[in-house]
Structures are given as C-alpha cells and as structure tokens.
Amino acid sequence: MKQSSDRAATMPRRLDALIIGAGFGGMYALHRARGMGLDAHAIETGDDVGGTWYWNRYPGARCDVMSIDYSYSFSDEIQQEWTWSEQFAAQPEILAYARFVADKLDLRRDISFGTRATAVEYDEDAALWRITTDDGTTFEASYCLMATGPLSVPKQVDIPGADRFGGELYLSGKWPHHPVDFAGKRVAVIGTGSSGIQIVPVVAEQAAQLYVYQRTPSFTLPMRNRELTPDFIAHIKTYYSDLRASARHSLTGGVRPITYRPLFSVSPAERDELMEGAWQYGGLAFLGLFSDILTNREANEVVAEFVRGKIAEVVEDPDTARRLTPRGYPIFARRPCLDTGYYEAFNRDNVTLMDCLEHPIVEITEKGIRTDQGEVEVDIIIAAIGYDALTGAMLSIDVKGKDGRSLKDKWAEGGRSHLGLMIEGFPNLFVIAGPNGPSALANFILLNEQNVDWVCDCIAHLRANGFRSIEPRLEAEEDWMTKVRELGSRSLYPTANTWYTGANVPGKPRTFPVYIGGLGRYREICSEAAAGGYRDFKLL
Ligand code: NAP
C-alpha cells in the first residue's frame, strides 16, 4: 500500500497546460486556459496570488501606473465590482485586488502555492514539457506558459560582509510578512531607484536616523496622488469599456495624453509653462508634453535641466541638492520614478544622504556600513538594489528545449525570442510579458492580457488543426530581434545604465530587449502573425 502511494507521489501529473507563476499574467492565463476547456494548473513560489505585489510589501510600495489602468480589462463584471480608492494604488490595495479576482474566478483550486519550478525540459518525441518542482512534484504538459514576471528575481546583496551584519537586513523585493518597527532605530537604505525612493520618505518619518546610500541619482517626479471621488469612479465605470479599448491600442496601454509636438517647436517661455504645469499636475504628465524627449538629446536635456532646477528649489542644503541631482544620462532613459516627498525628506534633521559615487560602500560590518569615510552604525539595512530583470526569472529555471539545448546557452548573449512570445528551439513554450515585447514600457496588466490571449488563440489553432507543436522559425526570430534592436537604437534608452539593458547586473550581457514601437502597434503585429496562418512558425 505504502509503495503504491509513493509511486503515485512521484508519477508526473499530466496536464494540457502548466503555468509557471500566479501574478497577474499567470492568473489570467489560468482563467483563459480553463475557459477553453484545457486541463490547466499553475505553480507559484509565493503562498498566494499577486506575484510582484505579493513580495514587494516594503513601506511606501505603490504602483506608478494609474489604478484605473493597472487592472484587468477582460471582465466588465470585475471592472464594475472593484473600486479603486486612489489614483495610484498602494501595494496592499493591489494585492487585495489580486485576491478579489482569485476568489471571483475561483483560481486557487488550480494553483499549487509554495512551489517553485526548478527544471523544465522538452520531450520532442512525446511533444510535451516535463516540469520538476522543488517539492518533488512533477508535471507533464503539452504547453508550458512562463508567467514568471519581468521583475521577480531581486538582486542579492553582493556587498562584502553582508552575511555578518548583526542587525536586521531586508531586501525591498522580498519584504517580510511581519511588521518591521523603525521607531527609534538607525536605518540605512541602499539604492535610490523606484523602490528606494518610495521607502525613504516613509521610513524617514518613523526612524531615529536614516542614511540613504545613493550611487546613481535618479530623476523622480512628484506623484501627487489623489483619492478618487465617487463622481470620478462613476464616470470611469460608465465609460470603462471604451477607455480600455483605447488604452489597448495606445503606446503604453494607459489613458494618458500623447503629443506629436517636438520640444523645439515651442518657444522657451511656453515650454517652461508646459513643464511647470506637468510638474504641478504630477505623475507622468511630462511624457505627454513633447514627442522627442526620448529621441533628441538636446530636447531631453531641456527637460532634464528643468527637473534639476526643481531639485535645487526643494532641497534646502545646496551640497545635498547637488549630490541628488542626476547628470550624465538622459531623463526617462532610466525608468522614471514617481515619489511622494522624496526630495523633501532630505530637509529633515534625521535624514543624511551618503554619496556612494564619491565614497563607495567598502563593506557591511557587524554593526553597520563602512565607506572610506568610516563606519556608520545602524540597526536596520534595507537593500533596495533592484532586480535581475526581464530574463532573470526564466534563467533561474533549468529550461531545456529540443535536443537538450539549454535556454542559458540560447540566451548567452541576451534574451532572444520571436515577438517576445516564443523561442526557436523551444516548441510550445510560451512567454508572458517577457523580453523583446513592449515589456517595461507598457502597462504590464494589459500586456499580460494581450500575450495570454495570443497564446490561448494559438493553442486553440493547434488543437483545431491537429498540430502537436509550434515554434518560431529561426529567420523570423532573427528578423524580430533586428527590428527590436533597430528601433531601440533610434532612442536614448540604450545609452543609460539600467535594468532595461542588463547593466545593473555584473556580467549580464548588455542589450536592450524592449520593443519600443508601442503596445498598440505590437498588438497589430502579433495579430497579423496569427492571421497569416502562423507563417513565421513551424507547425508539426
Ligand atoms: P533599480 O531601479 O534597479 O534601483 C536599484 C538601486 O540600487 C539603484 O539606485 C542602484 O544604483 C542601487 N544599487 C544597486 N546595487 C548597489 C550597490 N551594491 N551599492 C549601492 N547601490 C546599489 O531597482 P528598483 O528601485 O527596485 O526598481 C526596479 C523597477 O521596479 C523600477 O524601475 C520599476 O519598473 C519597478 N518598480 C516600480 C515601482 C512603482 O510602480 N512605483 C516601485 C518599485 C519598483 P545604480 O543605479 O548606480 O546601479
């Protein structure tokens, strides 16, 4: 009896579709796959749905895409039932939303939580994927959907001595589930990207002392978050379907003004007026001002200089203001940050800026952080040092395609794929919101929906026409990669050291695996690829 139950435990579970990840991409994939009658199951490392919003529960965590945009559009029922409280939602509200959707769609019954995929291997003869997990469960699935997320592998603290620190050390991207008490504590924040910039003002109000270790200063704009009024909500809900339809075909997947006006077509006085208006309005209003901010270096510099001037206006100490002022890379070529009181925090007596460009961190000690200026003793270190983005999550799994070829080898020079959706040599492996699609430049939830819809339509096509497998032709993949590279090289994005380019991870190949043609155009290209009978793909 015991023997047979052991055997049952090690027998692979046979599925039509296995989905890796239960963030917003994986949740929708599971819903769609089930809806088309597939035997589908998802595995998720966390203990609940939500993906990045399950892990990123650091103080001040908030989305920089407007809540009315950063939510599912596929179900009007969900849109009508859920009500956002703020223009930019905080992490607890976004996680509550993910849970609401999981309950509503009864998703959890088909998700194994606390389960990480360790290896994913293709059996060409059987045309199926074998998935091994860290809890010993194995699956066999005709289709494997990688909904592993673009920002789900936090960088580990690689500063010497990190393991001997005697206080509390937290990663922003793997924040503990217990409350962290900063009252009366000396706290260090390392990193001033979107995460660090959100953490600083909140912790500054609670801690006795806060030391902000900044290497590259970021450009950050005031978020000017607001509560959403009942009238506004009622209005949005009346027109939600239309708003969503236009967002799907927009550049970024959100309701945001766009412009065809180059910066130098406007007089200096009018420019200043427009920029002042955008600064006062808050959010990403700047991106709707001029058409060439990310293609014309001189135009970019005008906007950058305006924002630099604002830093000098807000920060009282001129030396701190100077150190906080970003130089040497174009504004918006790194992901723009939105803050609430970030620069103002440096006017507090208990906040000190530590300039790591001038005085790099030498080591973490038992008691704190040492630079060449000496040791600063702290009780808590928060490392907000970013992610092995875009490719990191898929490469953390041992993925082997046809002939045992490993994804690590295929992606040795950077993530390659066709349309960001499929990889030559890896049939029936689908990537959701992966590298080489619009990725970081689009609203991830609408991108997830589009990717999942494309994948599910593709699977329906295979099944309706008796095909066992699909993979992109090598030439098609190369053409797409050339297109992504050429478009990217016409912009200023590749010129900055960012997670977009892999420059933030030592040893990572430097590429710019983001399609910058916009979500709307990307949708058309993907639809054309399907409508043309998947001519760019090998169907067997
Ligand atoms: P990030 O933008 O990559 O920033 C990491 C920061 O850590 C940088 O300032 C970096 O400096 C610094 N750093 C890394 N290693 C360091 C070291 N050894 N010593 C000193 N400093 C070090 O990461 P993030 O802030 O987590 O944001 C990543 C992305 O997540 C964002 O761009 C955004 O897309 C997303 N996100 C969004 C929100 C939101 O919606 N509001 C919030 C958080 C994150 P260098 O630049 O010099 O390397």
From TrEMBL:
User: EC number(s) for this protein?
Assistant: 1.14.13.92
The Swiss-Prot or TrEMBL record describes its family as follows: Belongs to the FAD-binding monooxygenase family.
Gene3D superfamilies documented for this protein: FAD/NAD(P)-binding domain (3.50.50.60)
GO MF assignments: phenylacetone monooxygenase activity
Species, as recorded: Sphingopyxis granuli
Key words of the record: FAD, Flavoprotein, Monooxygenase, NADP, Oxidoreductase
Q: What name goes with this protein?
A: Cyclohexanone monooxygenase
Taxonomic placement = Bacteria, Pseudomonadati, Pseudomonadota, Alphaproteobacteria, Sphingomonadales
Q: Which cofactors does the annotated protein need, by name?
A: FAD
InterPro entries noted in UniProt: FAD-binding_Monooxygenases (IPR050775), FAD/NAD-bd_sf (IPR036188)
